[in-house]
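For the sake of transparency, this paper describes our internal protein records without simplification. An entry from our holdings is shown next, in its original layout:
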Amino acid sequence: MLMDVLPEQLGEWTDALSGQSYAWQAGTFVPGQLDAPKGHLVLLAEQLTKSALQQSLQILDAAGVQVEVASLKRIAEREVLNLRLSAWSPELKAHLQEIATSWDIACVPALPNGAQPGLVLMDMDSTAIQIECIDEIALLAGVGEEVAAVTRAAMEGALPFSESLRRRVGALAGADAAIIDQVIANMPLMPGLLTLVAGLKAMGWKVALASGGFTPFTGHLRQTLGLDADFANTLEIKDGRFTGKVLGNIVDAEAKARILCELAERYDIPLSQTVAVGDGANDLLMLAQAGLGVALHAKPLVQEQAPVCLNLLSLEGVLGLVQTA
């Protein structure tokens, strides 16, 4: 089956593929499968074009990588194409990422199996929700610019997270703790969050939050969305006002990675079946620990190091990655 005879929109390829696996050989698709795939390339977009596939195949051909079209699905109103690869390397991933200007990719050694039990652990601020809660608290407390600058430094990796958190919380000393309720009442969910959670729950997967933010916000999300667990920091409050201190151990990068492993053990889920999602430097250890680490609209440092980066799609793209295999 020649590429030229296939429609420009990959969404129209379903009938042509007829549910059969096809290998890419000498510029044409022929029925067949790879004997022992060593990696996956997943293309994701609202609408995938033939051009996106052609550009990807050029890079794979140049690298001598054999390709099998494993599946083409529409998941959460997005098109998801899964290619099995005969080889995988960080260099190959980097080349494919460079050309993905109008689509998202995941080029990884392995994908979780959506038909088996699994776990998704998400960061909260700028991942599950669209804001940084501490910045919103600080804004209402009248110290917004001071705290936002420290938040940026921490998320970009320029400042140790624990130090940055204590500095930011310290700036809140004396502010009315009722601010928390105001922020919760105006907490915008990240696009795709409800779709992701509903899809994962329908699959029987566990969903949890591990946040460098604060327990009132993660607890609200756990309760309203029916999540399985949440972990965050505890603000000290006395006489209805913030003391400027954090109680207990801080949920930092090391804690997030540890929480992922502990939850996987609690639910008897292999790490290969875990997915971590985050956007900041304090998420990198968690992303590296998971079977699949996904950076969502991430900071530059995280873009460079994360296993997978979703830059165009939102959290519904995570569901696409889980359900494509």
Remarks:
- The CA atoms of residues 130 and 188 lie 6 Å apart.
- The domain at 119-131+189-324 is CATH 3.40.50.1000 (Rossmann fold).
